[in-house]
Amino acid sequence: MKLRPATSDDAYRLFRWRCDPATVAQSVRPPPATYEAHQIWLARTLHDPTKTLWLALSTDQPALWLGMLRFDRRAENGMAEVSIQVAPDQRGKGYGQRLIRRGTLDYVARTGVRTVWAWVKLENRASQHAFLAAGYELVDIDDPFDLEDIVRQRGQGIRLQHGAPESTIRFCKFEYAST
Ligand SMILES: CC(C)(COP(=O)(O)OP(=O)(O)OC[C@H]1O[C@@H](n2cnc3c(N)ncnc32)[C@H](O)[C@@H]1OP(=O)(O)O)[C@@H](O)C(=O)NCCC(=O)NCCS
Questions:
Q1: In angstroms, rounded to a whole number, what is the distance separating the alpha carbons of residues 78 and 82?
Q2: Percentage of residues in the chain with pLDDT exceeding 70?
Q3: Measured from the CB, is residue 45 less than 6 Å from ligand 1?
Q4: What is the pLDDT of residue 122?
Q5: Counting atoms of ligand 1 from 1, which one is nearest the CA of 128?
Q6: How confident is the prediction for the chain on average, in pLDDT?
Q7: What is the H or E stretch that residue 178 is in?
């Protein structure tokens, strides 16, 4: 897998991934209303120094697109939020966890950001597994029964903090702290 920064030439590919029904279902925000709105969002993102948008490609198969990773650095605390999409036809093959792990290590090494977090919907088991497998820890959740289930499945220790996000959607929060 190799990562490269997104460019405006990636607009349509990113738009298709963003409008994929599974991605829409797992996103907090609705998809862009039009392709033009998406292009405006991409142009802003590419020019925003607090945002990092990478695309992942296969190193074995030329022109095989694996997915995208976006980091949003928050000026107020020097931490960053990550979000991920694996290309719809490449899901369930282990790329998600590899992309998160590889991208996070690259990102913290390049930026010096020490803590990266992700909000994941409580029903998004694939994403939860991918973040845990990539070395993130579950740090917050608003449903203790699901928490126990995840811990049981992964057999991992967790560090729980209090305070659920202000939303009616139920999330869990994963965090990566670089040493
Ligand atoms: C969520 C997503 C990033 C995961 O990436 P992926 O490449 O499909 O997942 P992987 O193949 O790396 O699998 C990760 C883990 O989830 C498990 N998994 C995969 N699909 C699953 C499913 N539908 N339900 C439960 N577990 C699942 C895998 O077995 C693996 O667990 P393991 O390490 O214990 O074996 C990807 O499916 C995706 O882009 N989905 C749509 C957008 C999205 O949900 N983004 C994340 C928003 S927080």
A1: 13
A2: 84
A3: no
A4: 85
A5: 16
A6: 87
A7: none
